[in-house]
Each structure stands twice: as C-alpha cells, then as structure tokens.
Write a structure and sequence with these properties.
single chain; alpha/beta; 5-stranded antiparallel sheet; 38 helices; globular
Length: 941
C-alpha cells in the first residue's frame, strides 16, 4: 500500500502518463532499486517518462506534494547516486534523439537516453566523437555521463563533459525549462527566476573576492576531481548561464533534470595503436608516467600484477601474462594520429622519452584488430572481471582517487600498503596513470558488523592518505554519490563546502531533488543501505550488477533486464534461505514467472558484453528446467519421438489457417484471430498477416547425383514446416526448395540425412528448459549427419542460423564440418555463381545467433556482393525468440520498435537467416523479410 501522498501522485500522473509506465509492482520496484553501486534503496514509484512534457509534469507534481524525486538514465554509476526510496524518474527509452548541428559535426545535440557508444556511431562518418570515453561507454548514457562528469582512458581533463559542453537544456525544481542555446529561453528564465541568477552572481563574486579560495579551486582542478560540485565553474566563467551549464556537469542529478546536452565534439583519429610496457615494479612504471606525459601519447593505463592476474586466463591474453613476477606492473600506452607518418613520429618520440627506464621485455605498438581490441576490452572490463573473481556473497567495491602526477609512485605504494594492513588481500590497483587517477577494487563482506567496521576504518584512513598526505581527489571521475558524501568537506575545507551548500540551496530550495547525494549531513551514510548479494545460482553469482548487459537485452524496458533478473533471483534465493515473509516470496515467484521467465528471449546476447561472461539466458533456461514437470518432460519426449508427425500436423495447421486468411483477408482474419486469442486467455497463439502457409515434406535422399562437390543439407524443422508468407513474390518457392535449387545451380550433389523429417537440432526443447530431450535430439542429429557426411568428409549446411548455433554448442564429434548459412554461401556457393543483376538497395538483419558466432561482418559482406547499397539493422534480438513472438508478442513488438526507422524509404525487401525472426520483422516493418538465399538466387540468375 502506497503512502497517501504517493497514491495521490500516482493518480495525478495517470491522467497524462500511461499507467503501465507508472510502476508500483513490488518486484519491479526491487529491480529498479539497483544500480552499479553497492547500495540499495527501493523506490515507492518508478515513472518511465518518454517526453520532456512528462518529465516536467513529474517534477511539478512531486514538488507540489513535497515528494523527493531522483533522475536516472542507465544506472551504471558506482557511488549510489542513481537510487532512491521515493520516486525514481527514468529517462531512457524514447530519449534517443540527436542532432548534428553543422556539416562537419563540430557540435552534436544529444538526449540523455543515448549511450556514449551510440553517440560515437552517429559521429563516426564525420571523423568525430564525444570527448568523454568512460570504460562503461557501451552502456552508460549521455545523461549519466554528463551528470557524473565521467571521463575515461583518453579524454583526461581536457575532453571531459565540463570542457566540451556547448549548451544544455534543463528542467528545474518547479518545472521551469532553461535552454542555454536559446536567447529567448535565457531571457524568460531571468525574468522568472531572478533569484537564481542573482545567487549565481553572488557566489561568483564572493569567490573572486577570496584570493585563497580562488587559488584553492584552481589548484584542485589541475587533476581529475568530481568530489562535490563543479565549483571551478564559478572561477572559470563570468556569465551566469555559462556558470549554470558547467555547474550541471558533475551535479549527479541533484540540481536539475537534463533534457538534452550539446557537446563540442573532438577528432576521432583514423590511425590508432597501443602497446604493453612491462616493468618489474610499480614504482618504475610510475616513474615512466611523467616522462610519457611530455610525449604525444593519447592514453596511459596502469595495471598492477593483481589486475593482470584477473585477465590472464582469457583465451586471447598473451601467454607471458601468467609468468610475470609478483611485483610486475603494466602500462597500456595508446597513440593516435591522422596518418601513418605521424604515428611513426609519435612512436619514436615515446621510445626516446622512456629509454632511460628499461622494460622487462621489448614492446611493440600494434594496430592488429585482435591484439588491439583485446588490450582495450580487457582494460575496460577490469572492474567486472575482478568482481567476478570474488567470493560468493561478497560485494565488489571500487574507490576512485587521483593524485598529482609527480607523486603517483609513492601514492600507489601508500595505497597498496593500506589495503595490506586492512586485510584486503585481493585488492587490485589500476587506472588512468596519465591523469594520476587510480581505481582500487576489492571484495567486501557486509554480512557482519565487524566487516562493516573494517570497511569504515579503511575508508577513514584512505581519506586521510588522499587528502592530508597527497592533497588528492577522493573522487576523480565516478562521482561523489552517497559513497563519498561524508568526506566532501574534509577534502575541500569549510569555505568551499559552504559554497556547495549555497549551490544546492539555489537550485533545490525544497531539498527534493536526489536528496542525500553529494550533500549529506549523515557522517555514516556511506555505511548504510548496503546491497545484499546472496548466493542464488553459480551461473549468476559472480554478477556485480554493473549493467553492461542492458543495452543488449531485448526485454529491457518492457519487463526486466538481465541485471534485474539477477536481482530478483537473488532476492528469491534469500527469502527461501531465510524462511522469512512467505507471502512476499509467493508473490515474487508468481510475478517472476512473467517478468523474469516468460519474457526472457534467452538469446544470450547479454553474455557477449558481460565482462565475466554471464549468460542470463542460460540461467533462465536452467530455471525452466528446474520447474519443468514430469508431465512436460513426457510430452517433450512424445513429441521428440514423433517429430515427423509433429511437423506434418504443423504444416496442415498452417495450410488450414492460410486458407481462411486467403478468403477473409488481413483485417477480418486479424479481428477473428485476436478475438479467439482473447477468449482463450492468450492460450491461442497470436496470428499475424505474415503467418506462412505450410511447407513441404522432404521426400528426397539425394539430389543432383554425380557432381564432384557434395553437401549434406539439413533443413530445419521450422523450414520443413513453414512455407511462403503472403509478402513473398508469387513465383517464390518455400525455402527448402529454394535452397535445393541454389545448391544445384552451384553444382552440388545434395545429400539429405537419413530420417530427415524426424530430425531436430533440439532448440525447440532446450529453449524451454527441457534439456534432456534437447540433448537427445541433438545427439540423434549428430549421428545422422556423421553418417550422411561420410564421417565428416562432406560439409553440412544448416539453413537457419539459430539451428546451426544450437547444434554447434551441442555436438561432440569435431570431424563434422558444419556451416552456418552465411559462411557456406560465402565459401562454397558465391565462388561458383556470378552476380548478374545486383539489387540497388536491400536491408539485412543479423539475428542473435549470427552475433554470437561473430558472423555479422560476413553477413554484411555477403549482402554487399548482391546489392549496391546495404542497410544493416542495428538491433538486439528481434524478440521473436523461437515461438515467443506467437505466445508473448509484446516481446517481439518491443524488440522491433525501432526497426522501421532504420529501413531506407526506397528499400522494398529485407533478408536474414532465421524464418521465425523474419515473420516478426515483416510484421513490424513496411517490407517483407525472408532468407538471404532468395536474394542470392535472384541476383545470380
């Protein structure tokens, strides 16, 4: 039950915001109570706002009802600044508009829901990028990047948000909008809020009159610093609007809501190379950094021996990582330039500068994609990689400090000594050495008062070392949050801290905007609201809830993301273990069935970006297996043993439905089908106009005998069941026949496995948690393919990428040479056929399995062989997820919500490599999608 004022807020907001985006379900509230920090607060209401008007309404109404509100984008922040026990306003989906403001992209306007990586994709054609480059750039969104003044590996202090902001559009505590790029907006704001302008001018003048404070501020910002507010704005700028927009940077959502921000972009150099310099001690490595500072390097990252250990078992890691001495330290050095000659000159300058301090082994700068990408992937994923090594039940913590570069050697020694004395034997140190910025990562058990006290003692001593011994920054780029709020005055001193209090008063007079963050009177706030991480399942126990997975999840924003599924699983496990609150446990299990299980596509794309390789889809399949009944297993076995009959029934059913579709038409058929689904309480699958007619039973065993080249063709059970859809060309034939025609034209003898109509890769069963039957069908298929291929003598072609991937993960006999449809066409078919009539433009969609096997570029290559122009859809899983597009169509609809906007207006056809995915893509676009085999056949005839 909501408190009365929150219930009133919900009722008011429901008049202008759809109720499904005003979340009060306890399971979802718990899921949103998590960010990447080690704190947890559970909101009372989560509001997903899609427009500035909605954001204004939330801000006005929370203010009117005296209810605190916190703003969030991706929730990848590390210091507890994106959580609340009040109202959480989330601005991600539908906040992804951008504008390139000139022909050369010197400025770009971005909404807060765009990830940093996506912004750089928009700017890439211009050879530009945004300045900030945090390690979390693939998941972190512009709203948080600006609000935390996040920096990263290359940007340092010269290209962070503070230095590259051009303008900002914000919503203040009373709903007033200020756009610093609009002169009328500034004039109106001055008239409406003269007290804010006067307050800013008074602060500026007071600081200017205090020479000691002015000098203190200038000195503090010579190194990275995100502790407290960006009070350097009051020294660096005169105009109050310039001051305001720079105060917003690093304010962590405590002063205003950002609707959009305009950045000055920076050059994205064409040539890049990096090297690994290995030194036998951390002191020597630190001695090299000031020398590198004088050279044209773009980045210098330091990794101590323990950091290296966390990545040395990666298959792509150099073998020598494992043999380095315990005192070793690594510098990852990057150079960038516009041409190779300048690259060579920069490398020569660097080698000359550091030659006085020898490395343990020779080093070379590499631009090789495999080596280069591993070096940076390993560095960017260090936090979560280290977190994945921690003991189950403990929390991965990260501290983020900075020191004057001349003293980083002794600072590193002091920090490592502190952690040794405090008993943190697993602590690692790494960071942006060029800026004197280091991250300290360690595991902490918060399950006992003594352990909490150990952490408290360590934090007190850390603050003493950083502030009193080195006059450094307690937060360099991760934001103050709740974690460092008790120490802001200690670092800055009383005079500067009072300035910060006045800033908060000016912009948030009622103390309702993200209260408790940056400014907090509670000296123990960093020890409260600590997030539990109980053991749940070994598949997910290493998750530290960083959120890197979320951009890859099709269900994120509809129900739960992978991170949120793990949060729920942990809470369910905790409730079961403690035996507490059985009513709450029962309700959570009920709600989790839909939110966590039924709307998970189990596509595994989350595992591609998870630094510790957690595939939440596998976990959900595991849950499904645990919950599968004996009856379900018996039914699966029955179907598996009668696959030929099952596909025959499916063909008949599809033909039956197609017959009525052809008579009734789209509209009437859709109405009847929708009504039947409704009265059956959604037991009847959803029909759509792209539902195909039945396919054909495979009757052949060998086709086109006598050819020197032979191929074993395994048509998936889906393609054996499904024929053409309404959008196919009149002369098209079903895919199994089209594949046969194509292979014959390429000169192949086609061999079908024995018992083809009874075979299945097992995906239909394993995806539902029925792994025993899935494994049995995979083994049955393996035996049949071995026999048909003469024990691996002939290649095996799969006509659907998901089936190929499922079998690829399951088969044991590696003598089998199995091929995804893309790779087989490229390697075996295209060399035998001539492209005679290339298309002008086509759209292609890489399905999940294509991404997981790294075949995206090959798909693009294949499409470019067949068309002059190719539109390549950027997306996660399409959301059809096998058959869930029929049973949970909202997942498919959510996954395809941005599909149409990526398809050029003059494009009429789309191609892919998965039949069911193509049905879903056709439904939610204005073109028809089908197998790329049709395109190849067309252009080579």
């Amino acid at each position: 039950m909501l408190p009365a004022n929150y219930q009133r807020l919900k009722e008011i907001l429901s008049k202008t915001i759809p109720s499904k985006r005003i979340i009060t379900n306890p399971l979802q509230l718990l899921a949103y109570g998590t960010d990447a920090s080690f704190y947890r607060l559970i909101p009372k209401i989560v509001v997903q706002v899609h427009t500035e008007e909605e954001a204004v309404e939330v801000i006005r109404q929370t203010g009117r009802l005296n209810i605190p509100v916190t703003y969030r984008a991706a929730g990848t922040s590390l210091s507890g600044q994106a959580i609340t026990d009040s109202v959480l306003m989330v601005a991600t989906h539908e906040w992804r508009k951008y504008t390139i403001l000139d022909d050369t992209a010197l400025k770009v306007k971005l909404q807060p829901g765009i990830t940093g990586a996506r912004a750089n994709i928009y700017l890439q054609p211009f050879g530009r990028k945004i300045g900030p480059d945090p390690a979390s750039i693939n998941a972190a969104m512009i709203g948080g990047i600006a609000a935390n003044n996040a920096s990263g590996m290359c940007c340092g202090t010269d290209q962070n948000s503070y230095k590259t902001i051009a303008d900002i559009r914000i919503v203040l505590y009373d709903g007033t909008i200020l756009d610093t790029a609009d002169e009328k907006s500034k004039k109106d704001f001055t008239a409406k809020h003269p007290e804010i302008i006067q307050g800013i001018e008074k602060l500026r003048d007071d600081i200017k009159a205090d020479a000691t404070l002015t000098e203190r501020i200038k000195q503090k910002y010579k190194i990275k610093n995100t502790t407290g507010y960006s009070i350097n704005a009051l020294v660096d700028y005169e105009d109050p609007f310039d001051i305001i927009k720079h105060l917003m940077i690093g304010s962590e959502g405590t002063l205003a809501f950002t609707s959009d921000i305009t950045y000055y972009t920076v050059v994205d150099e064409k040539y890049k190379a990096c090297t690994l310099m290995i030194y036998d001690t951390i002191e020597k490595a630190c001695d090299v950094v000031p020398l590198l500072k004088q050279t044209p390097v773009s980045a210098v990252e330091l990794l101590d021996r323990d950091s290296i250990r966390s990545i040395e078992d990666d298959p792509e890691a150099p073998a020598y990582f494992r043999t380095l001495p315990e005192t070793a330290c690594l510098l990852l050095v990057e150079i960038q330039a516009d041409n190779q000659q300048i690259m060579d000159e920069k490398e020569a300058a660097i080698r000359k500068a550091v030659e006085s301090i020898p490395t343990m082994q020779p080093y070379k700068f590499t631009s090789d994609p495999k080596e280069y990408n591993f070096n940076w992937k390993a560095r960017k994923g260090l936090l979560s990689s280290i977190g994945g090594l921690r003991k189950t039940g403990t929390t991965c913590l990260i501290e983020d400090v900075a020191f004057p570069i001349q003293r980083i050697g002794e600072a590193c020694v002091a920090l490592k000594d502190l952690f040794r004395r405090s008993g943190y034997t697993d602590a690692v140190l790494y960071g942006h050495a060029l800026d004197g910025n280091f991250h300290l990562v360690f595991s902490q058990d918060f399950n006992s008062p003594s352990e909490v006290q150990r952490y408290a003692d360590m934090m007190d001593e850390l603050a003493d070392i950083v502030v009193n011994k080195f006059d450094g920054s307690l937060k360099a780029e991760h934001g103050t949050g709740r974690n460092m709020a008790p120490f802001v005055e200690k670092e800055w001193g009383e005079a500067a801290y009072k300035i910060m209090l006045r800033i908060k008063d000016i912009f948030d007079p009622h103390k309702l905007i993200n209260p408790g963050v940056i400014i907090n009177e509670n000296p123990k706030i960093h020890l409260e609201n600590l997030k539990p991480l109980p053991a749940a399942d070994e598949i997910i126990d290493k998750c530290m809830e960083c959120g890197f997975c979320e951009p890859n999840c099709v269900a994120e924003g509809l129900t739960l993301s992978p991170r949120q599924r793990i949060v729920i699983a942990r809470e369910i496990a905790r409730l079961k273990a403690m035996g507490e609150d059985p009513a709450r446990l029962k309700q959570m299990l009920h709600d989790a069935k839909y939110y966590s299980d039924e709307t998970c596509a189990t596509d595994g794309l989350c595992g591609l970006v998870c630094p510790v390789k957690i595939d939440t889809g596998k976990f959900i399949k595991h849950v499904r297996h645990q919950e599968s009944s004996d009856t379900a297993k018996s039914v699966a076995s029955y179907i598996g043993n009668r696959m030929a009959g099952t596909t025959s029934v499916l063909r008949g059913g599809l033909n039956f439905v197609h017959f009525f579709h052809s008579i009734l038409g789209d509209t009437l058929m859709g109405g009847i089908a929708s009504a039947m689904r409704t009265v059956s309480f959604k037991a009847i699958p959803k029909w759509n106009k792209d539902m195909p007619q039945g396919g054909r039973k495979i009757k052949d065993s060998i086709v086109n005998e006598g050819q020197p080249d032979k191929v074993v063709y395994f048509p998936s059970c889906i393609n054996r069941s499904m024929g053409k859809s309404k959008g196919y060309d009149k002369d098209d034939v079903e895919l199994t026949r089209k594949t046969q025609e194509l292979l014959q034209r390429a000169g192949f003898t086609i061999i079908y496995p024995e018992g083809i109509n009874s075979l299945c890769c097992g995906m239909a069963f394993s995806s539902k948690g029925l792994k025993e039957e899935g494994a049995r069908k995979s083994k049955e298929l393996e035996d049949a393919l071995l026999k048909a291929s003469d024990n691996g003598r002939y290649p095996v072609l799969f006509d659907m990428s998901p089936c190929f991937y499922t079998f690829h993960e399951a088969y044991q006999n590696k003598d089998l040479k199995i091929y995804d449809p893309i790779e087989f066409m490229l390697d075996f078919v295209m060399p035998k056929l001539q492209v005679k009539h290339p298309r002008d433009i086509v759209t292609v969609f890489p399905v999940c399995s294509v991404k997981k096997i790294g075949m995206e570029q090959k798909l693009l290559q294949l499409a470019k062989m067949c068309s002059k122009e190719v539109a390549f859809v950027e997306s996660n899983c399409c959301g059809f997820a096998g058959d869930r597009g029929f049973t949970y169509p909202e997942l498919n609809e959510h996954g395809q919500r941005h599909l149409n906007e990526q398809i050029p207006s003059d494009c009429k056809d789309g191609y892919s490599t998965s039949r069911t995915c193509e049905i879903g893509m056709s439904e939610y676009s204005d073109i028809n999608f089908k197998s790329i085999f049709y395109l190849i056949d067309e252009v080579t005839r």
